[in-house]
Amino acid sequence: MKVTIHSRSDRYEFDADGSKPLLFAGLGDGIALPYACASGTCGSCKATLKSGSVGDAWPAAPGKKGFKSDSQILLCQCAPRGDCEVEVAESVYRMIPGSTLPSGVNARVANWRLLTHDVASWELELHDPMTYEAGQFVLVRFPGVEGQRAYSMVNFEPGSRRLELLIKKKPDGGLSEALFAANPAGTQVRVTGPLGAAVFKPDAGKDVLCIAGGSGVAGMFSILDHAESIGYFEKNSGHLYFGLRSMRDAFFLDRLTSVARYALGALEITVCLSEEAVPDGAAQQYPGLFFAHGFVHEVALKQMTGRLANVHAFLAGPPPAVDAAMRGLILQGKLSPKNISFDKFS
Ligand code: FES
């Protein structure tokens, strides 16, 4: 089947066999189609079907909110049923040669460990190695579960078969509740990736600012891991603001203590507690970490305003917190939007 994409910048054609959605068929062909969550929730891949027909894997996808006609589709959910033409409202470009193209790979849940009452760390053992950039994510499809879920890599081991991920238990989140109820180690899953544009680019030489809430800190570990591995903090500074409700929700603080120690003072890590005062002894228990009371974006903005001249910011976590951080960085911090990266998951 032939798929034609009309965009503001150019027209592209690629072949598709109908086995995967238009987004993944196009990305696999090196065409940088627009997307963010890649899983039907954000609406970033909205397009208009001009001719032909598609099969829609998730007719009730939340990303369709605001759709005005039946010809509007989500590229991440719709697979072609024959030749078709699709219009994308924005500019679309070819990826630069050598870019890592997402593909599907089988995997096994190799490890599962509860970190708190509602956050778990888990590892996937991939059938084939995956190359990815720090900050990227994968989609995971569980057997018998509709749709795919997005998870950012915690580890930075491009080319390995191991992916370390975090998952948060969501109230009424059917899949997460089922996983927390029964250790899924050994389950065979299907992984698609790597995906995501909020990636660390060392060549830009920017100081790194990470603002993350809860399990959104996953991708920040990957970024810090990459930076650490190339000695990035010998020339650049880094700041991580990690938002939690209370110490009951805390995880990976020992690991962050080690990360801070290796950066020899060039990386400042602040744990922000929004629902309780900082307990006595927290700083002594985790030497090298700073603690503050308040919402993570508010603490970060207060401390970083006036220090953002050469910064690239990475944001992750609950969407309202990401939106608030972005607004504050742009309006209050005068940081250019091009120096702010995040992947929108809803
Ligand atoms: Fe398709 Fe988010 S809805 S990328």
Q: What does this molecule look like?
A:
This protein is α/β, with parallel strands linked by helices and 346 residues long. It has three domains: 2-87, Ubiquitin-like (UB roll); 103-195, Elongation Factor Tu (Ef-tu), domain 3 (Beta Barrel); 202-341, 3-Layer(aba) Sandwich (Rossmann fold). It has helices at residues 22-28, 174-181, 218-229, 253-262, 282-285, 296-304, 319-332; strands spanning 2-6, 11-15, 31-32, 46-51, 54-56, 72-74, 78-80, 84-87, 93-94, 103-114, 119-130, 137-141, 149-152, 160-168, 188-195, 207-213, 238-244, 267-273, 289-293, 311-316, 340-341. Helix 3 (218-229) links the parallel strand 16 (207-213) and strand 17 (238-244). The mean pLDDT is 94. The structure holds FE2/S2 (inorganic) cluster. The site of FE2/S2 (inorganic) cluster (FES) has 13 residues, from loops. FE2/S2 (inorganic) cluster binds at residues 35-38, 40-45, 63, 74, 76.
Distance from N terminus to C terminus (CA atoms, Å) equals 31 Å
Mean pLDDT value: 94
Main sheet record: 6 strands, antiparallel
Count of DSSP-assigned helices: 7
Number of domains: 3
Shape: globular
- By DSSP, the count of extended strands is 21
Percent helix range: 10-25%
The CATH superfamily title of the largest domain: Nucleotide-binding domain of ferredoxin-NADP reductase (FNR) module
- Report strand %: 25-35%
CATH topology of the largest domain: Rossmann fold
CATH class of the largest domain reads Alpha Beta
Sheet/helix structural class: alpha/beta
CA-based gyration radius: 21 Å
- One letter per element, helices H and strands E, the order comes to EEHEEEEEEEEEEEEHEEHEHEHEHEHE
> What does the oligomeric state look like here?
single chain
- Output the strand order for the largest sheet: 13-12-15-10-11-14
* Low-confidence blocks of residues: none
In the CATH classification, which architecture of the largest domain applies?
3-Layer(aba) Sandwich
Bound molecules: FE2/S2 (inorganic) cluster
